[in-house]
Amino acid sequence: MKPNRKDKEHQIMEAALKVFNEYGFYKATIAKIAKEAQIGKGTVYEYFDSKKQLFEKSIIYIKEKFIDDCVELIKDEKEVRKKIILIAKYHGIFMQNHATTTEILLSNSALLSKEIIDSMMDVRESIYTFLMELLEEGIEKKEIRDDVDKKTLLLCIWGGIMTNYYQRMFLEKTKAEDIGTEDIVNTIFEGIGRS
Amino acid sequence: MKPNRKDKEHQIMEAALKVFNEYGFYKATIAKIAKEAQIGKGTVYEYFDSKKQLFEKSIIYIKEKFIDDCVELIKDEKEVRKKIILIAKYHGIFMQNHATTTEILLSNSALLSKEIIDSMMDVRESIYTFLMELLEEGIEKKEIRDDVDKKTLLLCIWGGIMTNYYQRMFLEKTKAEDIGTEDIVNTIFEGIGRS
Amino acid sequence: MKPNRKDKEHQIMEAALKVFNEYGFYKATIAKIAKEAQIGKGTVYEYFDSKKQLFEKSIIYIKEKFIDDCVELIKDEKEVRKKIILIAKYHGIFMQNHATTTEILLSNSALLSKEIIDSMMDVRESIYTFLMELLEEGIEKKEIRDDVDKKTLLLCIWGGIMTNYYQRMFLEKTKAEDIGTEDIVNTIFEGIGRS
Amino acid sequence: MKPNRKDKEHQIMEAALKVFNEYGFYKATIAKIAKEAQIGKGTVYEYFDSKKQLFEKSIIYIKEKFIDDCVELIKDEKEVRKKIILIAKYHGIFMQNHATTTEILLSNSALLSKEIIDSMMDVRESIYTFLMELLEEGIEKKEIRDDVDKKTLLLCIWGGIMTNYYQRMFLEKTKAEDIGTEDIVNTIFEGIGRS
DNA sequence: CATGAATGAGCCTTCATTCAT
DNA sequence: CATGAATGAAGGCTCATTCAT
C-alpha cells in the first residue's frame, strides 16, 4: 500500500506544525519544514500553494485533530463541568506538544500581521462552536447559569482556562500535568467573589 | 523650546507602535516606521539600536503608559470590583488604539519566535504585579475570596476579561464602548455555575 | 556532463577574485561578483556563507593554484637560483592577472581591518613554507649561504623580488615579461654592496 | 596663543592616523576619528573635504614626518650602510606606532580599491626619492655597487627590509627593537648566495 | 566657527518560490 | 512526481555627508 496524497500532506503538515511551533511563522522556513518532513523543498509546493496556505491548512488540520480528540475524550462523561476539566487538561497536554501553534488557535494572537490573524478567525470560530455546544448542554442540565449571555460565559470559561495554562506553562515553566485544572475550573464556576 | 531627545524617542515609539500594530513585528519595516514618524530611516537608529530593541522599548513604554493611566483612573474608586470594571473598560479603549501591541502585552502571544516571547515576559509580569495588588486589596476588603490560589484568581479575572474583549472587538468588530463590561466582570465574580 | 558543485564554486571564486582585484575587498559587492559570475546574488550564498568567507576561500584557492603551478614549473630545473628566477617570473605573470589579490597573498597588506589581516596569515605562511623548502635545497646544494638565519634570507629574497615587481608593474606600468628578473635575483644573490 | 588652523588640521590628522591604523580605511569612521580628536563630526569637514581627502592628507603628513625624522637621524652618520640600518630601525619603531598607515606608505598595498592605491603612489615616490639619494651617496662612496640598475638596487634594499620587518612584527609579533636589523641589512649588502 | 542630529544611498544577507532535470 | 539549485525582491543596518543652530 503506497502512501497516497493525503498521507504526504499530513506528513508535511506535521512537520510544518513542529517547525512553526519552534520558530514562529516568520522564522520558520520552507527549507526547515522540508528537512523536518524529510522531503525536498520543491515537494512542499506540490502539495501546498504557498507558505501561508501551508500554515493555514496546518492549523485547520490540528484544530480538527484537537476537536476530534476532545469529542472522543468526553463522550463517557456526563457532567459538563467535568467535561470542561477533561478538555482543559487535554488542552494543556496539547499545548505542550504544539505550543505556539495551539495558541494561535485557542488564545489571542499577537504580532501577526492582520492578514494572518484573519486566516485564524475561522479556526477559532469552530473551536468556539464546539465549546458552545458543551455550554448549552450545561445550561440545559442546569449546571450552568442561563441568565447571562452565552458567548460571555463561553469566553469567561475559555479565557480563564487558557490564561491560566498559558501563564503557568510558558512563563512559569510548569508542566501541563502539574497544573491544578480542577481549581481553575472550579474557580470559574463558583466565581472569584465572596458569596 | 526645541524638542529634546526623549520627545523624539516617544515620537518614534508612537510611530513604531502604530506600525507594529498594523503589520505585526515581522512585516513592520523600519522604513514604514520612519515614514510614519516623518523622519529618515537612519534617524531611527540614532535612538534605538535595532528593530528588536525598538519593539521592546515600545511595548515597555506603552505598558507604563497603560499602568499609569489605570492608577490615575481608579484612584477615587473604593470598590475593587468597580476598579476592575474601570480597568477593563479602559483596556478596551486602549486596545482599540493599540490593538495588536496591547495584546502582545496583555494577552497571550503566538507565532512569535521564542526570542521575542522572552522579551515580553517582564512586561507581562509588571502588568500582573499591578493587578495582583488590586486583587490583594479586594481580598483584604473581603470582596474577593481568599480560599483559592491568588495567581489562579488573577488569571481567571484577566483571562476572562481579555478573551471577551478580544473576541468582541477583533473578531466580532464590536466597538470597545459597546461591550458590556459589567456583565463580564459580574460573571467572573459570581461564577458561571448555577448556585 | 553537468557542472558539479566544485565547478560552480570555482566559477564564483574566479569572478570574486576578479572583482576583489578590481575594487578591493570593501568596494567589491556581492552584486558585482554575482554579475561577473553570471549568476544570481542569492546563488553566491548557496556556495559561500558570507562575503568574508568567499574572500578567504578565494585567496586560499588562488594560493594553491599558484603553488601547484610553481611546483610544476620548477620540477625540471636543478639550480635553485634558476628556480627562483622561474618563480619570480611566473609570479609576475600571475600578478598581472590577479593584481591586488595576488598581493594580498604575497606581499604586505595594508588598510585592511585586523580581522581580514588575520585571515591572511595562514595563506602567507604556506607560501613561505613552500619557498623555505626551496631555500633549504639551495643551502644543501651550497648555492645559498648557511651562516644567516634562514627566515631572514627567505624574506630578503622574497621582499626584494616582490617589491621590485610591485613597483615596476603597478607604479611604473611595466609589463611583467619586460621586467629583468635575472638582474633582480642576481642582485639579491650577490648583494648590493661592493665586494 | 590660540591654536590656529594648521594645529587643528594636525590634531585631526593625528587622530585619523590612529583610527585608520586601528581599523583600516573602510572600517574607520568619521565618527570615530572625530571622537579621537575630541571634536565634533562636522568639524572634520571644516578642515577636510571628504574622508578620502583626509586619508590622503594624513598619509602625506605622516610621510613628511617620517622623512624629516630620518634626515635628522642620519645626519651625523657617514657610512651609508649604517644610515640604512638607522632608517630601518626607525622605520620599525614607526611601524609599531603607525602600523597599517606606515605600510600603506612603504610597503605594498592590497585590498584597496584602485582609487585609493593611486592616491598613494605619489607618497611612495617621495619615499623612494629620499632613499634614492642615499643610495647614490653610497654608490659615490663606493659602498654600493654601480653595475646594476639603481632602482633595482633600491627596491631590493627596501623590499628586503620591509618584508623582514613586516613578517617579524605583524605575523610573528616580534617587537621592533628586538629585530636584528644589522643581520638583515648585512644580508642585503652581502647577498644571499655563497661567495 | 563648531556642532551633532538627521539623512538616505547602498550593501549584505535571507528565503519563498520557480523550474529544469 | 520529486528534487534542490537558482533566483531576486526585500529589509535591517551603517555611515559619509549636510545643515540648522
Describe, in plain words, how this protein is organized in 3D:
The structure is a homotetramer of 195-residue chains. Chain A is built from 8 helices and no strands. Chain A has 195 residues and is mostly helical. Chain A folds into 2 domains: 1-48, Homeodomain-like (Arc Repressor Mutant, subunit A, Orthogonal Bundle), CATH 1.10.10.60; 53-190, Tetracycline Repressor, domain 2 (Orthogonal Bundle). Chains in contact: A-B, C-D. Chains A and B meet through helix 1, helix 5, helix 6, helix 7 and helix 8 of A and helix 1, helix 5, helix 6, helix 7 and helix 8 of B. The structure holds a DNA duplex (21 and 21 nucleotides).
